[in-house]
Specification:
alpha+beta, Serine Threonine Protein Phosphatase 5, Tetratricopeptide repeat, SH3 type barrels, Ubiquitin-like (UB roll), 4 domains, flat
């Protein structure tokens, strides 16, 4: 079957699904000889709608084989295993779905033809449920605590309710994909399927003059002699769509939907999603690239229009990460940044260590949740960490502590604790490849060649460190790790 035929059948099937003619839609989908990963996904959803779990599993298997990075397909197969009470396989698929998110808070599939947003916190929510079904309540709690790092404001209550349920060892409902929502073919491609008559119909005319014996086809009409007064817009620029951007960093695609670009390329952004991915066109190829790899470029249609293309690339870092619930850090400028206040359902816990940091935990959290957060921040096992309510280390907090007494010390949703470790920490140092100067009080300013001590990794693009007596965050792309870092 040709691509055009596949496109036509795909469009016909989703049209039937829009009319809720599910059986007809499924028959059309199954008639497609070589379905792609998205079509297999649609088939799986229709099978799930009919409660045909075995057929749904096979369809999602095929979808994943076609595109092993399609996170939503892993999510759906995980739900299929969950409904079949195969909880170990369900847990494994939710883990694969989370891995396919690659650290993103969400993936918006709108650019790929699916009006759905897959949230990392919802994937972890379902993973926790599968672990709870297996009786692994501690793992379930750990995954829900992890979900708090990826939650959005709209999903806060969902994660908090699930966490409270696991503390009581009670099950909760899974987050399910809306089965009536399907991947759709590109509407622009579908529009091209319509046959177009560029010549029009021949028109037979005859003269109204009795003596004129002419009859036949209308002759060609003369062309307009007077052209436009304004100069013609260059064809290459007139054909460009979207907003022009310069590529700042090299990007290697991991899926067929992504586009390879290198620094200096000029791409045109057709659509930017909330998940920080942009749908772009480059050399007549289209695909997804991270938006924080790009910088907007102004192109003038004047006679010097191409001069803007030769300007040097800026050293702007990637998009700033959100720092929710963090304690202010005094910067070199002496100013203190604003702090996101804790919600009514969470505490902000400030930890005094060799450096200060903060974590957010739900109100009434048990010791395992608190120590899990601190353990993740320090990248150390919980057994190597000791917490106390005072600087002298006398009021020790451990698994036997009544946490109600600890949380009573909180004031205004904030509490301060002290931390020590029994394991020596590995010190990692960087050297600055470029100077970094920012007016943001949370940032760490430095000069090229400065030495920076790593305190924590905020995410893959931003680190927290110390340099010249100052503490703050800085872009990872501006530094290089020194060899021979020691404990």
């Amino acid at each position: 079957m040709s691509y055009v035929d596949t496109l036509r059948q795909w469009d016909k099937a989703v049209t039937c699904a829009d009319r809720q003619e599910w059986s007809e839609a499924l028959c059309i989908f199954l008639s497609i000889q070589e379905p792609n990963s998205k079509i297999y996904f649609d088939i799986g959803c229709l099978h799930l709608l009919n409660q045909d779990l075995d057929d749904a599993e096979k369809a999602f298997d095929c979808s994943i084989r076609k595109d092993e990075h399609l996170a939503v397909a892993f999510f759906q197969r995980g739900m299929t295993f969950y409904k079949k009470k195969r909880y170990e396989e369900s847990s494994a698929d939710f883990q694969r779905a989370f891995k396919a998110l690659r650290g993103n808070q969400l993936i918006d599939y709108k650019a790929l033809g699916l009006r759905y947003i897959l949230y990392a916190c919802e994937v972890l929510h379902n993973l926790a449920l599968a672990e709870a079904k297996l009786g692994s309540w501690e793992k379930a709690q750990e995954n829900l605590v992890k979900a708090l790092d990826y939650k959005t404001d709209a999903k806060l209550s969902l994660i908090d309710r699930a966490l409270q349920s696991t503390l009581k060892q009670k099950l909760f409902k899974p987050v399910e994909f809306p089965l009536k929502m399907l991947f759709r073919p590109n509407k622009h491609y579908v529009a091209e399927l319509e046959k177009k008559d560029y010549l029009g119909k021949a028109k037979v005319v005859s003269s109204v003059v009795p003596q004129d014996e002419f009859s036949g086809f209308a002759p060609l009409q003369p062309q307009v002699e007077d052209g436009p007064t304004s100069p013609k817009e260059p064809e290459v620029l007139r054909a460009l769509q979207g907003e022009p951007h310069t590529v700042l960093f090299e990007f290697d695609p991991e899926t067929s939907d992504e586009l390879a670009v290198v620094p200096g390329n000029i791409v045109f952004v057709l659509q930017k999603g909330d998940d920080n991915w942009a749908y772009v066109v480059f050399n007549e190829r289209r695909g997804l690239v991270p938006y924080n790899y790009l910088e907007r470029l102004e192109i003038s249609l004047a006679s010097n229009q191409h001069k803007g293309l030769a300007r040097p690339l800026s050293q702007e870092p990637p998009t700033r990460p959100e720092r929710k619930g963090l304690t202010p850090v005094e910067s070199s400028s002496g100013r203190t940044p604003q702090v996101v206040q804790p919600t009514d359902s969470s505490y902000t816990v400030k930890i005094h260590f060799t450096f200060n940091f903060a974590v957010s935990v739900p109100r009434g959290s048990p010791y395992v949740v608190l120590i899990g957060k601190v353990s993740k921040k320090l990248n150390l096992p919980p057994t190597a960490i000791s917490l106390s309510c005072d600087a002298n280390g006398k009021s020790v907090i451990d698994a036997n502590t009544d946490m109600k007494d600890v949380w009573r010390r909180a004031s205004g949703g904030h509490i301060t604790l002290w931390c020590t470790t029994t394991e020596p920490q590995k010190e990692i140092h960087f050297v600055a490849l470029h100077s970094y100067k920012s007016s943001n009080p949370e940032d760490l300013n430095f000069q090229e060649g400065d030495m920076i001590k790593l305190l924590s990794r905020v995410n893959q693009d931003w680190f927290e460190g110390q340099s010249n007596g100052n503490t703050g965050i800085f872009p990872a792309a501006f530094v290089e790790e020194l060899p021979g870092n020691k404990l």
